[in-house]
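Reviewer 2 asked us to include a model.

Predict the structure of this chain.
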Amino acid sequence: MSAPFPQAVVIGASAGGIQALREVLGCFPAGFPAPVLVVQHIPRDRPSGLPALFDEDCALPVAEATDKAPLCPGVVLFAPPDYHLLVEDRTTLALSRDDAVLFSRPAIDPLFESAAEVFGDGLLAILLTGASADGSEGVAAVRREGGTVWIQDPEEATASLMPASAIAHAGADAIVTLRDLCRRLGCFHP
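Predicted model (structure tokens):
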């Protein structure tokens, strides 16, 4: 029996995130019928290059989000440098230059919080490795709204602070290794 599909997936990562995202994004099957939105902490002052970096590893199309872009199923969108990525409604994204969160823009909390508001219990949030507490408030928002949260096991993470902080602050529906996370994603059959 396959798991019910989430209506949207949000992923947050920081230090060590490139390698973790390489594994996780490679697990999404072609035809995955939900949008996948990603914040990886990146420098604000230069192009990210993330879509090109992940394009070959992912069965889904990968792009950088733009302001007012449509929220498309089966597409991976990365937050661009120096902008927070937000879910405006069930069909539209927004970019924001609001203040940095814990020194990061893009930050994970604004994405998770805005997506939780829009998708409620239809949201799957995945928090990976990182060296700040960004993501903790977002995880709390997702859980408050009935969404599902999977957090990378801090013991496995390259940088354990981010997953450990979120677990201590808000808990998780599952604390997973990357291998287990990929197995769980494999339960979503298009």
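Residues 14 and 130 are 4 Å apart (CA to CA). The chain is about 30% helix and 20% strand. We have added this to the supplementary material.
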